[in-house]
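user: can you give me the structure for this one chain? tokens are fine.
assistant: on it. calling the predictor now.
[tool input]
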Amino acid sequence: MKLNELSDNPGARKNRKRVGRGPGSGKGRTAGRGMKGQKSRSGVSIKGFEGGQMPIYRRLPKRGFTNIFRKNYVEVTTGRLQRAIDAGKLDIKAPVTGEALVRSGVVRRLKDGVRLLVNGTLNAKISITVAGASKGAVAMIEKNGGTVNVTVKKKASPSDENSSASDA
């Protein structure tokens, strides 16, 4: 086989429709756009126009908002960590960080950090550094003799402050 003999499978590539090339083509004159008017002309977009009636996007009330400060964490479960350790992708002797999880293929990208959750069992003794971890995940790792280092401190909610004040 030579490079100049390469070709696509028959019917794999479809030729574009050549419009406005005379009456014999079947797509001449108006080029399949019908007669006159806004939609027959180029550069016009009328999405959302309802013929003068109040459009639905203005009839419905606005609701909610987008929090621009929201953090987007990658979730890693304890069961997923155990599978990576069993497969030999994750070294338990070295401290496990977000970069180590990316290198081993446990997560694809870090986003705003890694959050450790409980789903499945973890039998290995590991030292892990993550942005956040659930109480159950921390308990499971510490039960095996490992350590969890959480880098992002959770803000205390007003209800936590009230309960600590009432305890004193």
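assistant: here you go. Residues 74-150 form a domain with the Ribosomal Protein L15; Chain: K; domain 2 fold (CATH 3.100.10.10). Strands lie at 74-77, 114-117, 127-130, 132-133, 147-150.
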